[in-house]
Here is the input.
Amino acid sequence: MQHHLFMARSLTLPSRPSAGAARIAAFISPHGFGHAARCSAVLSALHRRIPQMHVDIFTLTPRWFFERSIDAPFSYHEHRTDIGMIQPSPLHENLEKTIAHLEGFIPFDPQWIDRIARQLDRWGCRLVLCDIAPTGIAVARRAGIPSVLVENFTWDWIYRAYAEKDRRFAIAACYLRERFQEADAHIQTEPLCRKVPWADMTVPPISRPFRTPPAEVRRQLGVPETAPLVLITMGGFQTDYDFWDALGAHREIWFIIPGAGARSDAGPNIICLPQDSPFFHPDLVRCADVVVAKSGYSTIAEVCQAGAAYACVLRPDFPEAQVLEAYIRSRLESIFMTEAEFQSGRWLDRGLLHLLARRRRRRAPSDGADKVAAFIHARLRNGNKIT
Here is the structure.
């Protein structure tokens, strides 16, 4: 089999590892931005414990995301680390294209695994952190260094859910399940899609810490400090919406929409931001009263930490959605809507005003990232032994 999907190039940031730096590698799924956000929070927390740490990041998630998310110095290596699900939009997956990509990706190319393992050995990497990118586990095993898997679901669990529609997903799930079980340490993060008895620990939701006070973020955006503010986000997807007129009709409410780009039809109460906006996304979440989004891990973690309300767009065809949506119902002030209701803007009158009228709950910052960092740090200090 030709492993044509293992195409890559490496880009090194100006910040290079200093002599004696503790060097680790991170293999991160590029499926949306949620895995990169979670791993960035862990790496930043670990850097606070190991100031001399340098990270080698392997992923297709854009480099700018890590430049704005990680405090630690790092090098960026543009490699495909997993397939995930091929999605034409944030609310729809393409099963046939996903299978086509998987068949070009698994079993993993042994030459690629060997080459990356040799690189890690030359660099003196002491550990591989994997946010559901199974190639990192295979590379670590080949290099003879420990691997730590961080997940709230793994791809084999996702693919099993599609096996009735296409048996080829069962084949991929079987192969990847074996790869995930080869991790030296296994950390699960809430909300969990499947609890496994062999996990070393379970931690609360992980999100990047806030940076800028809400009042300052609103000032920079030009939003009055006491005005109702709604954030509409679909994670790492560029998205077209049909509800611009409906938003403009609610002039008393301000709307922030990352990933929408510049639009001539946006009303004066609508702020459209590019996908790589200089505004730190968790800060946008914290300054909003309501977040309108699909049920995604990093959005849930950030909303929980911020104490905002959640207007959730349902994803009935996604295996993880049922678990994530149940978590939202149990922990947050929330409403739920179908995709059709979302695009029509009917949620503005039917649920949004009700959410804005509710009192925001007070939330304590999640310490999930620090718990993971403490676990990894203890193992590194223990002579690299993961037990």
